[in-house]
Amino acid sequence: MMFGNFGAFRKRGSLRYWILYLIYNRPMSGAEIMDEIEKHSFGLWRPSPGSIYPALESLVSEGLIIRKDDGRYELSEKGKEDLGIDNISQSDRMKTADSVLSELYSYAQYLEDIVRRDGKLSASDRDKLQTVIEKLNEILRFGGDSIANNKD
Questions:
Q1: Are 18 and 9 a contacting pair, CB within 8 Å?
Q2: Are 107 and 6 within 8 A, CB to CB?
Q3: Bridge partner list, 66
Q4: How many C-alpha atoms does 104 have within 13 Å on its Cβ side?
Q5: Which of 99, 75, 71 minimizes the C-alpha distance to 5?
Q6: CA proximity to 15, closest of 42, 54, 44, 43
Q7: What's the CA gap between 25 and 40, in Å, rounded?
Q8: pTM for the whole thing?
Q9: How many angstroms separate the CA atoms of 140 and 12, rounded?
């Protein structure tokens, strides 16, 4: 799946796919798109207006999105066709374990880059990471069998 790997946001040219994905779900302004990317990347990335608005202009000129009178952007029919998107909402599609694990691995690589850059994690971040590791170990130990039976 094109959007299954959040680590892809670090690759050149991927901003356009973030934009297309987000406005497929609902029309948005450039500012809303920046907010949503930041939210979807858990605060790891917030594109600047200097990257969002030129990308939006490019997508409009390619006919993949439309700028509405209220300033929000929406996916055009051509954009839907080019992406191969049908009428099922992205949020309605079930993610597979493989896609979630690929996404998780990408985040682990990104976190590793942050630690290499900054030298260490804060105590709070270490605690959060430990909680994530414990949850992943629980899933690994039980193979998912007991998760439905042991809800918190």
A1: yes
A2: yes
A3: 74
A4: 12
A5: 99
A6: 54
A7: 13
A8: 0.51
A9: 34
Q: Output the DSSP codes for 117-130.
A: HHSS--HHHHHHHH
* Separation of alpha carbons 74 and 94, rounded Å: 23
- What span, in angstroms and rounded, lies between the C-alpha atoms of 149 and 52? 44
Question: Do residues 65 and 23 make contact, with C-beta atoms less than 8 angstroms apart?
Answer: yes
What is d(CA 64, CA 56) in angstroms, rounded to the nearest whole number?
10
Q: What is the mean pLDDT of each run of 10 residues along the chain (152 residues)?
A: 43 77 91 92 89 94 95 91 64 66 81 86 90 89 61 47
Residue 136 token pair:
């992943």
Q: What type of residue is 61?
A: S
Measured distance CA(23)–CA(113) in Å, rounded:
29
Residue 49: both structure tokens together: 């207006």
